[in-house]
Every structure is written in C-alpha cells, then in structure tokens.
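Can anyone check this?
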Amino acid sequence: MARRPSARAAKHAQRAKPPATNPCAPGQSGGQYQPLTPAQVQRIYTESLRILDEIGMADVPPVLLKQALAQGAKVNELGRLCYPSSMVETIIAGACKEFTFYGRDPKHDIQVGGDRVYFGTGGAAVQTLDLNNGQYRPSTLDDLYDFTRLVDQLPNVAWFTRCCVATDVPDLYELDVNTVYALLRGTTKPVATSFTLPEHVDPIVDMFDMALGGEGEFAKRPFCKAHISPVISPLKYGEDAVMVALACMKRGVPISNIVAAMTGATSPAPLAGTLAITLAETLAALIMINVFEPGYPMIFSNWPLVIDLRTGAFRGGGGEMALLNAASAQLSNSLGLPSGCGSSMSDAKVPDAQMGMEKAITALACGLAGGNMVYESSGMMASLLGASFEAFVMDDEMLSHVHRALRGIEVTEENLGFESIKAAIAGSGHFIDAPQTMVSMERDYYYPKLADRDEPIVWQESGSMDHWARAKTKVEQLLQHQPSYLTPAIDAAIRHKYPIKLA
C-alpha cells in the first residue's frame, strides 16, 4: 500500500511553489531616494544649458550641423555648435517621454518611462570568467550565446544587451551579425546591441524581419534597441556614431544614447561639475535625435563614471558611482525623459564579498532614485573588462531584494492589523499562527534560493558550499536550457543569407 504524503511534506511542496503574487516583481516605482535638493537640480540644469549655449559642441557632422542651424542653433567664434536655451527646452518639451520596449514574446514587453524601474545588462567584456576553472580568458561567440540563454531564465533581468564581445570573430560585419543572431536564438526578451558601422544597420534589421516572419515586421514591434555613444566627452560629437544613429532611425530602431564621461579625465573631478557637463552632453545627444525626428524613442542615458585619481584607471564600484548615477537618474526624471543609468560594475575579479558590496549599493541607489533603465546591473566584473556566469545568477537574486526595497511598505488598515494585535495579546501572545501572518508570508516577504540561511551545522553537513560554488551549480542547471526561438526554416534562411558561425 502506497504511503500517503505527510502533512509536513505537503506543506514543504506548497512552499516550494512560486508565490501567487511576486513580492518583488520588476517594474516597481522608484524616486524615493533624491540625492539632490530641488534647488541643486535646478542649478545643475541651468549650468548645463549655459554650457550648451556658451561653449557648445565640436566635431559636428555636416548633416547634423545643417539640420541644427535650421532649427535655431548657432556657431560661436571658436567654430563650435551652440544650442540656445530656448531651443534646448523646446526639444525637451517635444521629446519622447514614454515608449514600449517590446520583447519578441509580448509577456516581456517593458513600458519605459514614468517612475518604473527595470534592470538589465550592458557592457562589452573582452574577457569571460571561465565557469570550469575560474580563470579569465578571451570572450567568445559561444560565451555570448550561453549568456543569452542564461539570461532568458533570469526573472529580474528585464532585457539583455550583449554583455561581451566575441573576440573570436574579428571581421566587424560578421561580429555585428553574429552578435544579433546569438540574441535572436537565445531569448525572446527585449535585447540591445551596437552597430560598428552605419551600413550594418539595414542588413541586421532585415534579419530581424526574417526572424519575425516578413518584411516590415520589426518596425511594428521593435524588440532591439541600439546602444550608441554619439557624444565623445568632453563636448564633441563622434561622426561615426551619429551616422549609426541616423541609420537606426530610418529603420525604427529605438536608441539608447549613452554618455559615459569619467571624473577627473573627460569631466571635472568635482561631482557637481561632472553632473553639469554630462547632462549637457546627454542633452546634445537628445538634440541630435530630435532635430531630425521629434519624439523619436530614445533613452536618456547619462552614465557619469569614476576613475581612481591615484592611478587614472576606471572604477565601477563605490559610493561615488552610486551617488553620481542616482543623481543622474534624478536629473533625467526631472525633465520627464526616459532615464538610463549604470550600476553593478564591480571592480572585483571574482564573485566575492567585494563584488556583492559594490553591486548591491550601486543597484539599490539607482533603483531608489528611479532610473527607468538600469544598465550593467548583471554579470559584469573587473571594471567592465570581464563577465561572469555565476555573477549573473547572484545578481538576479540581489535584484529581487532591490525590487522588494523599491516596493516599499503598504500602510493599510488591514496591514496595521489592530484586531490581529488585540487577538494575539489576549490569546497566545504571539503572531506565528495568526491568519494575517500566513497571508503576509508570501505577499510581503522574499525568500532567496541561492543565499544560505541555514544554521552552521546544517551548512557544514551540506558540504560547506560558499556563494560562488552554489551559483556555479545553479548556472550549470540553467545552461541545460536549449531554446529554439527560431524555427528550422527561418534559421536555415538566415544561415543562407548571413555568415553565421554558431553551430
């Protein structure tokens, strides 16, 4: 006679199921943390307008110069393109405030803008922390595909930007093509990539159309955005990047215009000065887009970065990074623009305590400040030079805690629970068995699966695994996932037309 499952076993099975309502779902509201006062926000903004009006931009491509001059820009005595404050504010008023960043599967669609906060990836790591030996080696196309199908299963990574560069694909066209093919094959989440040259845009968007089933389909639901850096700090345009942006606009590719100045190098060492000049530069990128097509979907990605002034080396972790990017989100949001900021760019080389500290403080700061799209928030190591499989799953769980913090505390009559308090005091003297406790248990609390919460003796008896080892085991499980998001017929057609290298 088969044994009936015990009540205890049934209870454990019930608790193992996902909660009916995710207590820390992505897309929570931010804005609780405001490192700048309203007066400081206004002063920095006013200074950025002054920079654009009196100093202006250099190295302006002729096509942009002609378009900007026709809409009120001017050239100063130094030959720099200057934008009057009235022109800038008109551009801001007509700029895109919200848009949908589509997934190939509609369940992954993201509404960008307002106070919603989403975390995703970024970076261009040339090295990958090998899952088997824990040593860095050059990143490969296989690594990129493996990262893609890993992220496909991580609930807190809302979109996937290629996090590493396939160093085994030296040809620039083949690199761009194979990068987006890996994204298409590995996930149906929103994705992002970069285009090395403007002439690469059309064939790649054609590939997107093929993946969706026909010409013009991508334009209906753009699921890939372009990461472009059209401004070279300090206060110069980069012609190649500007031309890539214009090519993307012709095909309806949403744009994340990224400005990434470095304190004490390409921006002033004082943090206020960096915020003023980078806001001006990101506004220059906004103007570049909107003089051609007002209201075009663009993420206002102002990423002030920090260098170690003792060595001149970029440093992605620390309080200054947290503060600067939180302030950047606050400034962008004050203008009503879809904001992008950077976090979790740990300087640590392995998934250790330093990594956890640096990633958590920067991710939480950007989230609480209300950055709509928080980049670099998963997997990046070694000051953006490396990417780690284990860090991806660690970061995903860390982001659950961040989302929970963003959700805040719901103060209602039910949650205050006067009657529950009264009943407990008059009865058992505790709240363990209160009906309110059982409801709140899953609704209000997040229970990590990777972090260890066992007693020391249980941990020892289970093998004394540290966080890195548990993460490695989890990655190995998740990489059993072999998605087939391209039908055999579409895959064959893409392989016939493009130099695809993935097996």
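Reply from J.R.: I decoded it. The chain has a mean pLDDT of 95.
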